[in-house]
Design goal:
mainly alpha, 15 helices, globular, 82% helix
């Protein structure tokens, strides 16, 4: 707990950002209407939302396995993913990503640095699919704005260039490692502590040079995002019958990018603000938008909390133990 308080200078700005978003939401939302929408939702839609949510996560776990060359079991991939979400929900700095790498590295014997590239690649996939969604929806949302389509395509191009760069690094990693080795040998501390981590990270990118595993991971992630679209739309129908698919899809694309904004743990306020902002652009009911965002957010926190706490109990780890370990790794690059 003492380290958490000492790190306040690092997590406090994100908390302030979340508070600003909550204040804007407070001014923009008709809270009685939002509460009425939440209370009147048909429980069947909540059940369907939960079913599609877990189906989506099952496919994401398959993608995670493929990116680690199927070394972890499906059960470990799924539970560790939920542990990572739990860490992101309660700890600052999105430490859940590093937490997943640490836990997967420990379970597979690969180590954190070797497992981390799988998480990085997965995040690139997420950005790519979020960009595709925006590219697909922006022309309908902002058809009269000439810059909308170029901006969307530019985002997709940047993400694609990032994935291509990772592929090139993976393809020529042997030569790159040899070049780094020659430089590192001049500095004893770098050679002893940093070089092994760099080598492990580069080895972890090898999956991008395996066509079968790369295509498998891409297929599972595409399926994941397809069910994410269905999941969000089902929930929206429970709040706004006959709502167009465009509403939830555009809001999901916007909130996916908003998650990158520094904020409090779980992107509190920021994700809700992005969904409400998307509905505002669509001239749709902002109260329904907030209800959609908060129900999905609470469900995500509950589901990941239940499975995540089970995983930490099984691993004999506490959240503060993980915070101490991950903060040390983040600071010292161990």
């Amino acid at each position: 707990m003492s380290n958490f308080l000492k790190d306040s200078k690092r997590w406090l700005p994100g908390a302030v950002v979340s508070l600003i978003f909550f204040y804007v939401l407070y001014l923009a939302i008709d809270w009685q209407s939002a509460l009425d929408a939440i209370l009147k939702i048909n429980p069947c839609f909540l059940l369907l939302h939960g079913v599609f949510y877990f189906v989506m996560l099952i496919f994401r776990a398959f993608a995670s396995r493929a990116l680690l060359e199927n070394r972890p079991s499906f059960r470990d991939s799924f539970v560790v993913m939920m542990q990572g979400y739990l860490l992101n929900n309660v700890l600052p700095f999105r430490l859940g990503e590093l937490g997943r790498a640490y836990l997967l590295g420990r379970k597979t014997g690969l180590g954190t640095a070797n497992a981390l590239p799988a998480i990085v690649i997965e995040r690139f996939y997420d950005l790519a699919f979020a960009a595709i969604i925006l590219v697909s929806t922006l022309p309908f949302v902002l058809s009269d704005v000439s810059w909308a389509r170029p901006v969307a395509y530019s985002t997709l191009a940047i993400v694609g260039a990032g994935l291509l760069s990772l592929h090139m690094v993976a393809r020529y990693r042997v030569a790159l490692k040899a070049w780094i080795d020659r430089i590192a040998h001049r500095f004893a501390l770098i050679e002893k502590y940093i070089l092994p981590q760099i080598d492990s990270f580069l080895d972890g990118l090898a999956v991008l040079t395996n066509p079968r595993l790369f295509l498998a991971s891409l297929f599972w992630m595409a399926t994941t995002w397809s069910f994410a679209v269905i999941d969000q739309y089902v929930l929206l129908l429970g709040l706004m019958p006959n709502a167009p698919l465009l509403y939830s899809t555009f809001a999901m694309g916007a909130s996916s990018f908003a998650g990158a904004i520094p904020s409090a743990p779980s992107s509190l306020g920021v994700l809700e603000g992005a969904v409400v902002g998307a509905f505002a652009i669509l001239n749709a009911d902002k109260s329904v938008a907030f209800a959609l965002a908060i129900i999905h957010h609470i469900a995500h926190i509950i589901y990941s909390g239940v499975v995540g706490f089970y995983g930490f109990s099984r691993d004999n780890l506490s959240l503060m133990d993980m915070y101490e370990k991950l903060s040390k790794k983040e600071t010292n690059q161990e």
